[in-house]
Design goal:
Strand order of the largest sheet of chain A: 1-2-3-4-5-9-8
Radius of gyration of chain A: 22 Å
Largest interface: A-B, 26 and 22 residues
Number of helices of chain A: 7
Shape of chain B: globular
Structural class of chain B: alpha/beta
Largest sheet of chain A: 7 strands, mixed
Helix content of chain A: 25-40%
Largest sheet of chain B: 6 strands, parallel
Number of strands of chain B: 6
Oligomer: heterodimer
Order of helices and strands of chain B: EHEHEEHEHHE
Distance between the termini of chain B: 25 Å
Amino acid sequence: MPTVRELTRQYMPEFPTRYCGTVYTDTTEFMDIGYGDVIAVGGYHYMVLKDECERRFGIEDPKFWVKRCRELETGERKILKLVFYEKFPIRIGSFTIQCHRSPGKEARILDLVGSDPRFMHGRSFEDVRGNNVRILDIVFGKRLDLIVQELEEDHPTYLRKTLPGILENYIGACEAIDFLHRNRETHGDIRRDHLWVEYETGQYRWIDFDYAFGFHENPFGLDMFGLGNILTFLVGKGDHNPADWPGHNLTTEDRSIVFGNRVTNLRRLFPDIPEPLNNVLMHFSAGTYVFYEGIEEMLQDLRPCVDLLRKC
Amino acid sequence: MKCKKILVAVDASDNAMRAVHYTGEIVGDRPEFLIELLTIERLPARDLFPDEAAWKTACENTRAELRIFQDKAAFALQETGVPGQTITKRYITSCHSPLTGDATQCSPGTSIAQEILQEVKNGDFGTVVIGRRGVSKAEEFLFGSVSTKIIHYARGCAVWVVE
């Protein structure tokens, strides 16, 4: 097997030789693998450049099992996700539920979606110890929520001019999740920062599918809840805390069914929102007695709203 | 509708045992009633475990717990006076189980409520009994509720929900 020095000499001659590390074929001890090391898997070599980080609440949280790499043979940038099993509680409103990180689930979904442009792409291999290594293509784009947040237009203008296009694309993103459900898979972690807009094409793409839960009676409920949250964010051009809207006489029933600090009945704040669109949002409010049982049911209500917005 | 033919759907929860006790108290020692204890097996998903061995062990434990519960439920019914010969047990294994079994029918794992109702129909039961842990609207939205679905979708039978 070639050494890192030999590999860099051939594929990455600009790489400083003093940083050349070790070639790893076993990724079990992922904490030991860092800058200048090479992971050899699936017939390719991946130069590790850094550990991926998640930035939350202003703090960088390193994910040591996720490596930013360069595929030496092609020069392409890749993300390698190594096996890290963990079980941890996550809070959703007042509920705490057990979440499991599942490399196998993510690998299975990567296979399922293949080159479907509505999802991130990648493939997976086993290293010499049987550890699953997911090799992900980088989505060159920006988070949808950041794009919406940075729009400077006022809400009436946004509603009329920008939201119809966003909604049309978002419906496509919802259809993508419906595709997973019809294949008995869940995304598992539908939140704003997991939906990206590709720079080159404007395509909406879902990322990160490795969360798994043990719900039996309503396995797709969390995904549906996540889609409702994002929809509410998009229609409101951000989340809205009732405390920021005094004088609107907002009741408990106007708020999210799970998050008491979010307004779901947005028509109370923005009367221009067409009622049929607001009615879709109300399915996710504390006042609802009717839940959507599947994504297609929601989309049947949502699709006509695009034209309604255009006529606003 | 054979209202004296009763299906009691049980998992291994306290709610299920409350439903069993309630049914026993209502039926008592009358031999014209027939009671079936039905368990639709739900095993932990493979995705929650790092390897096959850990998953299989968890599934074995879950199956053992459910089977033992059925035995306890049958015993609890008899303690309330229900004749033993009027009680039957039915256990439908999961189609996604890593454990071997000799069952001819398995549960596809789509919706427990729908599967229970299918059994009600297939077995011509006039009454279905289920325990319920009071869930909030938000919990029902996120995690689902077997009893709410049964109330919603049941046709041609009585539904007893024991809370």
